[in-house]
Give the backbone structure.
Amino acid sequence: MVVVGVILLVALVGYGLIRNLGKARVYPRRTASETYLRAIAQGMHTYASEPDGMYPSGFGVLIWEGLISPDVLLSPSDARESNIENELLDFDWRYDDDALPFNEMNRFAAERSSYIVLAWGEQRVFNADRVLAYERLDHRASDALVVFHSLEVVRLPPSEAAAEILEAGFEPVWADGSIKHQAP
């Protein structure tokens, strides 16, 4: 009877450890995603602190100005192809006569980024309740990352995040690339 009890105890402890190992991999990714999204928002606010008060026209400007690094554009939680990170890091972000113009840099980065920014090129208006940027929504995920103009990063269920994005006047972009009011 004691042997059965010991075996049961070992099995329960083993089950708990295996279950928690999966969670241990998820939390660092979530924290990194939050940090990357906040870094993008902070870079936008820093850029907009210039006299004209306009947000940058895209990620390329933020990278060229040294306000963010290209590696923050790809969330560790992003399930897309792994070669996207190499494309972002290998890209020539210099802006001069021989390099790509900013609009090409911005397009290149936006196509590969895990994050969607809602205020490119807009006048900086502080509205703490308005969404500034978000991680591409995934209907399979339990939550979605959203950063507000206040730089507060919040995790919301995807449907609530979509509602906040709609309230800001934009169509939500889902992880599969679709633009819909609800999960695809």
